[in-house]
Amino acid sequence: MGKCIKAIPLVVILSFCFISCSKKADKFFISNTFPDQIIKNLSIDKYDLEKHEWNFFAIHGDVYEKKKVVNATNIRMSFYENKKISSFILADKAVLQSDTGDVKAMGNVSIVSLLKNTTIYADSLNYFGKTNRVTSNSFIRQEKQDSTITGIGLEANSDLSDITILKDVKVVKK
After folding, report:
1. How far is CA 40 from CA 54, 60, 65, 94, in A?
2. CA angle 129, 69, 89 (to 5 degrees)
3. pTM over the 0.90 mark
4. Which of 7, 102, 151, 159 can bridge 97 by disulfide, Cβ–Cβ 3.0-4.6 Å?
5. What residue ranges define each of the domains in the chain, with the CATH number in brackets?
């Protein structure tokens, strides 16, 4: 009888711990730290009426619907002019604001203009959907057929038709 009485409090204590732990686990999993969707080969297109403006592609995307954010890896963002790709951004990772189309690209960033035959390399780059402009505060290297231009910071159109490198500009002719 003595062993049975000692076992009852132990069962009650273990039950209480189990119930308490499961409530903490529920709170942990309900929180919004996990994405609403995880998508492989994510592709998002933006159209203005019938005009295709851009395509955002990522090998992996974590979608946070309430925050209107997509965290993506291995991205390619293509910009269109007359139904053809005019330029594109490549990066290791990016954050896309799904409501505005703004993108912050990071890690081995390059933007290639097929129309202007130029490529810009940067550590990070921001694209603003409303103005169709790209900016950066990082070190920039622009490669053209006849020159290499380096500097700090950048402002440009997404097709690189209007580029301004902000400071410490150096030009090397090839």
Report:
1. 19, 5, 16, 15
2. 45
3. no
4. 102
5. 37-173 (2.60.450.10)
